[in-house]
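hey m, so remember when u said the tokens were messed up on ur end? i reran from scratch. heres the input so u can diff it against urs
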Amino acid sequence: MPITALIIDDERLAREEMRFLLDSAENVEVLAEGSNGIEAVELIEEHQPDVVFLDVQMPGLDGFAVVKRLIDSAHQGGGRPGQRLPLIVFATAYDQYAVRAFDVNAVDYVLKPFDRNRILQAVERTRARLLDNGQESAGNGLTLEAGARSDTRSGTDAGINSLLEMLHRQQAPGQGAAQSRLPSKLIVQVQSRLLLVDQAEICFAAIEDGTIRVVTPTVEGHSKCRTLEDLLELLDPHLFWRAHRGFVVNINHIREVVPWFKSSYQLRMDDRKQTEIPVSRAQTRRLRELFNL
């Protein structure tokens, strides 16, 4: 079953990565790309895609506001007759507080840096939703007419409003107070011992076979967290950066940035082994911003 898609993200490299991955999927046609929320609304109205891979934090309108505007337009009689609301896949680096909060008609969410298998899974979920809806690829969501279902509006609006409120709270000037409540120390298990380690001492964390390895200049052990997302909840976002889907690094412990294959980079850390960590293509732009490369 063919699927038509839009990619909306303010980072060019993230759009390129997403298009590359979608091009590798079966029967997916990317109709257009946009770099902000305003463009998203315009492109959706113009192309009426099956699905939109939508970033959260963007200039103009954030991703949740884009969805809210589309829903509001549907129920206020805006848009062209017969126009349908596309399915949404949130594709974002935004933290898991927002991700866990949304219980709306989003098909899926995927976290940056993107993983090919995860994107393909999102495509298959989209395809399954289209089939469940019993609709052709030319339309798949809510009809933007007076006959649009009111039951969908009530549940979706509540979820979207909750997300917007959360996003605005976390972007507000008072967010520093919330960050100050993060623990200054983390527990790292080294054999049978549970050590308290200062966050500032952590060089990097890596997930291997479902276990998170935590490395400092003097200690190497494991975290009790199940995923890197769970670990990132406890870490200072000003210090820690997810350079690759399998690695979180402390930017103060990067010893060297090593140019690598096809304009990519690796990070040489200052642990005892001087571990080299890959930077994903989606995060290369962030690396250049951090160090003015």
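this time it looks ok to me. The first strand starts at residue 3 and ends at 8. if urs says something different then somethings off w ur setup not the seq
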